[in-house]
Amino acid sequence: MQRSTVRGALYLFIDILPAACLYHYPCLQQRERPRISFDHMPHRTTSSTYAGSSSLAAGSWLRRSFWAFVLAQSLASVVVARDDELRFSRISLEQGLSQASVLSIVQDSRGFMWFTTMDGLNRYDGYTFTVYRPDPADSNSIADLGIRRVFGDRHGELWVVTMSGKLDRYDPERDAFIHTQIESPAATDPRATRVLAVVEDTSGCLWAGTGPGRLFRFDREKERFVQEQFRPEDERGLRDVHLQCMYADKMGAIWMGTWEGLFKYDCATKQLIRYKHSPRDPHSIGGNMVFGMTEDSGGNLWVATADGGVSVLNRTTGLFTVYRHSDREPTGLGSSRTMCVLSDSRSNIWVGTIDAGLALFQPHTNTFHHYRHDPSKSWSLGNGAVLSAYEDRSGGIWFGTSGGGISRLDPRR
Q1: pTM of the entire structure?
Q2: Burial group, residue 80, by CB count within 10 angstroms (0-12, 13-18, 19+)
């Protein structure tokens, strides 16, 4: 598939995501009850669901076309797993998950797991789900049905980013949502106040990123977000940028993944550095469509791109090592279309792809081990693209898929 075709399809991925997949392809629904244990989970709580429409429109033919593409790529990745494969526990519609495509995952300070979908925000206590949907009669209900991301800060607060770019803060005492406004002085681009990601830096400062790569710093005393002022030359460089994700590293920098490359913002010096793919430079970033980032135990930044595999930035040399798919390398990366990357507490690097399941990096051999869906094995990875990855406080690793629900690895199994 040509890069322009992938780019066109993935542009739809930003705003549409897995809404129609489940409804057009009910075969993606998983039917196995999970066997899950949580070290930090509270006991069973009473489940309450905010009222709201639970049906999702299939959308335009463009939406259906894109998800036909994702489904075809996902089904093409089905392989037979070996007996020594990792065993995943699956959670999906039968266990109460509102929609089988999970876009982001987080564990809150009380131990609950939260999952974002196109059919509401899901809270999981290890037994049951509570699904939060908008209720027109309740001003304290969640702002939208489609939820892009959820983020937990060091103060124990949960921040929810919706597909329309609204930002909510969850109040656990009232079980309610506080709607937060982002204001940009003299903004002419409507994307300037459309929130796409939230991160927290090493000093505890919360940052919100909006569509054209604008950053807003949260003022906790005034309870409002204040726009960060870039240098004029940096403002010009962000003019045609489309933000996709953000990451705060251990050195205090804020990284912005966009459709037009990777940006690093130094909060102290106010300097903005851009990394862009160059076909003539083998040590440049592998692709410009950045979908996820993580930092390994050595301080290297791993960057998942949808058009160029995974790139690893050596912070000392400033050079990238790029891992792409090659048919000649069976132990290489299974696909160059990567969606997420996670460095866990055991120094493992996990890479989620659109069409080749999950890849585990083996640093001693510089190779990848692959885990894909096998319909004959209930403990294999759930079907679909791997969209999100998260490690909980007990060391369990959760993977959100497009149509296959959640797959979890228990470190004690």
Answers
A1: 0.83
A2: exposed
- Tokens standing for residue 380: 């294999």
- E strand or H helix that includes residue 75: helix 61-76
Query: Percentage of residues in the chain with pLDDT exceeding 90?
Result: 71
Would the pLDDT of 167 be above 80? yes
Measured CA to CA in angstroms, residue 379 lies from 83, 90, 354, 384, 407 at distances of 11, 7, 20, 15, 9
How far, in whole angstroms, is CA 334 from its chain's centroid? 19
* Residue in this structure with the two tokens 């862009």, named with its chain if needed: 276
Say if CB 92 and CB 136 are below 8 A apart: no
Sort 213 into a burial class: Cβ within 10 Å, 0-12 / 13-18 / 19+.
buried
Q: Give Dmax (Cα) for the chain.
A: 60
Mean local confidence (pLDDT), 132-150:
98
Distances from the Cα of 172 to the Cαs of 6, 107, 178, 207, in angstroms? Answer: 40, 14, 11, 21
For the stretch 339-388, pLDDT in tens is 999 999 999 999 999 999 999 998 999 999 999 999 999 999 999 899 99
Nearest to 245 by CA among 14, 12, 3: 14
Nearest to 228 by CA among 181, 185, 259: 185
3 state DSSP class of 401: strand
Classify 303 as helix, strand or coil.
strand
State the pLDDT at residue 10: 53
CA–CA dist 41, 301 (Å, integer)? 31
Cα 97 from Cα 75, distance rounded (Å): 22
pLDDT tens-digit map of 65-121: 444 554 455 444 433 334 357 999 999 999 999 999 999 999 999 999 999 999 999
Residue 115 and residue 102 in contact, taking contact as beta carbons nearer than 8 Å = yes
